[in-house]
Design brief:
By secondary structure, the chain is mainly α. Helix content is 55%, strand content 7%. The chain contains eight helices and four strands.
Amino acid sequence: ALETFNNNMEVVNSKGAVLSNCEVYSLLQDLCQQGAKGRRNLAKTQTHLANIAYDTLKYLEKTPCRNQNPEIIQRFLQSVKDFKLTKAEKLQLINLRPTTPVEMQLIIEESEDRLTEEQVEELISLVELHLPENSTGPTQMVNGALGQ
C-alpha cells in the first residue's frame, strides 16, 4: 500500500490503494507502449525508471496476471465474498492463483481455524474457475517434458 510520511518519516496516511499485479501490468503496458517520443523522453530523463518498468513488465508477462482483466477480478472477488477474507488475502489469491491446499494455507492466515477442508477446496475451485492460468508462461509441460 502507498503510505504518506511527514517530515519525521512517520506514517501519516496508511490508507493507500493496493494494486493487483494485473493493474500494475496494465499500467506498465500503457507506459511502455506510448509513442516513440514518449518512450524516448522516459529513456532520456529517467533511464533507471524505464529499465525497471521494462524488466517488471517482462516478469509480469510470465505470471497469471497476463490473462486477467478488471472484469475477471471483479467476478472472482464477488465469488469469494462469503469467505470473510482480508483485502491482503484476496490480493494474494488474485496475484498468486493458488491451486493446492498448501498454497492456500500459506496465503490465508489461520486457515485451519477459519476454513474447513471443503471451503479450501471450494476456494481452489473458484480460483481455477475465475482466474485463468498463465497459458503462455515460461515453462509448460510438452510431451511430458518442460518446454519454453
